[in-house]
Design a protein that fits this description.
By secondary structure, the protein is of the alpha/beta class. The protein is 38% helix and 16% strand. A six-stranded parallel beta sheet has the order 1-11-8-7-5-6. A hairpin with a 5-residue loop joins strand 9 (227-228) and strand 10. Bound molecules: guanine.
Length: 283
């Protein structure tokens, strides 16, 4: 049976470092504050935002929540972001996605001061190695690194091309010298592609999309799906029970990638604050 790669221990180790860095910033009198903007009442977004707020408290990052009505205009949202961009006490800004259809998400994300963009959605094309990286993709990279598995030279297949996960994931794997394929709804034979994967990352949102016959023996399987099965239990995009017998490593849902996303957000928030105030890395 493959190793079950759990997120919580890796996330806790990262959060302990973040907490120490946050305390060092505080001792130096440097501002450290994450502003989170939630538009509307999407139930999943409310849960995610609540968790971000709780985790900020846990690690000693100040947080401000801005809950705007679903009907807010794009102009009002842009004005709030502009105000936060100028506020020296605010060192990180995050707009929870999805946004209502009448708001142009890309324009909104682009309006965030890049130094305060802790989601790092504006940095996709650069990835110089020193940039902050998007939280879920960065968290997955940390999880893979925690196992000691090398990415360089491996066939990496990413299923899903979202701006939040699939695209940044592919860029990060490429940056680590993986040979990367991105599959999506237009891929003709998905199984043909996934069977080539030494590292298979699945971020689609369809339960049991990936069955055991679609996975190579000994593959590293990362499941980012968040679905409900017939009995209402949380489940991912891969058939975990069958694939864990075949994979060398596999992340469970829940308890795999989930804890890493928020841990990376906390890391990015402290890192952004450090950079804005040029506090030395080793304080
Ligand atoms: N919605 C789902 N995941 C994310 C995320 O990582 N950041 C933001 N801002 N919204 C999301």
């Amino acid at each position: 049976m493959g190793v079950i790669v759990k997120g919580k221990p890796v996330a806790d180790a990262l959060l302990a470092k973040v907490q120490a860095d946050a305390e060092a910033l505080r001792q130096n009198g440097a501002p450290l504050c994450l502003a989170v903007i939630l538009v509307g009442d999407d139930p999943a977004s409310k849960i995610y935002v609540g968790k971000k707020h709780e985790t900020c408290e846990r690690v000693g990052i100040q947080s401000r929540m801005y809950h705007l009505a679903e009907s807010v205009s794009q102009q009002e949202l842009l004005e709030l972001i502009e105000k936060l961009n100028k506020d020296a006490q605010v060192t990180g800004i995050l707009v929870q996605l999805p946004l209502p259809a009448h708001i142009h998400a890309r324009q909104v994300l682009r309006s965030i001061d890049t130094h305060k963009d802790v989601d790092a959605f504006s940095m996709l094309l650069d990835m110089s190695g020193d940039d902050l990286v998007p939280c879920t993709a960065g968290g997955i990279l940390e999880l893979i690194h925690s196992t000691g598995v090398e990415i360089a030279g491996k066939n990496c297949v990413v299923v899903g091309r979202s701006n939040i996960v699939g695209k940044p994931m592919a860029m990060l794997l490429l940056h680590e010298n993986g040979t990367v394929t991105i599959c999506h709804s237009g891929t003709v034979d998905l199984g043909d592609q996934t069977r080539q994967a030494d590292i298979l990352i699945v971020a689609v949102g369809k339960k049991k999309l990936i069955t055991a016959d679609m996975v190579k023996d000994g593959a590293f399987v990362v499941d980012i799906g968040m679905n409900r099965d017939a009995s209402g239990k949380l489940c991912g995009d891969v058939d975990f029970e069958a694939i864990k017998e075949k994979a060398s490593y596999i992340t469970p849902v829940p308890g795999g990638v989930g804890p890493m996303t928020i841990a990376m957000l906390m890391y990015n928030t402290v890192e952004a604050a450090k950079r804005q105030f040029a506090v030395r890395r080793d304080i």
